[in-house]
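look at this:
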Amino acid sequence: MTDSRVVVDGVSKSFEGENGPVRALDAVDFEVRDGELVCIVGPSGCGKTTLFRIIGGLDSPTTGQVTLSGSPVTGPTPDLGIVFQEYHLFPWRTVRGNVAFGLEQLELDGDARERRIAEMLRLVGLEGTADSYPSQLSGGMKQRVAIARSLAVDPEFLLMDEPFGSVDAQTRSMLHGELLDVWHETGKTILFVTHDVEEAVTLADRIVVMTPGPGRVREIVDVDLPRPRSRTDGAFVEYRERVRSLIRE
C-alpha cells in the first residue's frame, strides 16, 4: 500500500526460556497508513510490549521486519517519537528543559528552539508551565510534557505504549480529547498500544486485535464512527463488545 507510513511484515520474536525457546510473536502483519490513528489491543501475554519495542527500534525481530516510510527500522530514530506509560521526564529539568531535550540534538539557534518549545506547550495546553519542574505537575500534565517532547523534533510517526494507563479515569478522558486535538492539528501518524478496549474504540480509526501468545493478528476492526465518540452510544457499545469478543475467543 503506497500510502502506508509503517509496515509490520511477518514479524516474529522468540526468547530463550528455561525449557527452550519461547515464541512471543508469530508472523505479525499489518500497516498503518499515513495520518492514521491505529490502536493495538489484546489479552495479557499477547506480545503487545514486545511488538512495541520492535516497532520502536528498541528490540529486533527474530524474523520479519518493520519499515518506516519504506526504510527498515534498525534502531531508534528521530523520525519515530515514542511515548511510554511512565513519563521518563528528567526531574532536574524544567518543563522547558524536558521539551528541549530532543531539540538540543538539532542545529537550531536559541530563538528557533524557544519558539518550537512554546509551540509544543501551546499544542498540549501547558502554556505558563515552562519553568515548572516535574515534581510540581500532576500525572496528566507530566504525560502531556512527554508528548510535547516527542513531538518537538517533528517525527513522522508517534508510537505510544499505554500512555494514559497510570492516570485516573477523568484525567484519561480529558487526555483522549487533547490527543485527538493534537492529532488533528499535526496530521501525525499514531500507533497506540492499550489494554483498554473502550480507549481503543474512543480513539482509533482501526483496531488491531491480537491473539493470546504467541501474538498474532486475529482481526483488524475498522471503527466507522464520527468523533467525538460517546461511550453510551449504541454503535460505540457494539464496537466495544465486538472487540471484547474477539479478545475472548
Observations:
- The chain has a mean pLDDT of 92.
- The two ends are 30 Å apart (CA to CA).
- The helical segments are 48-55, 95-103, 110-123, 139-152, 169-186, 197-203, 234-248.
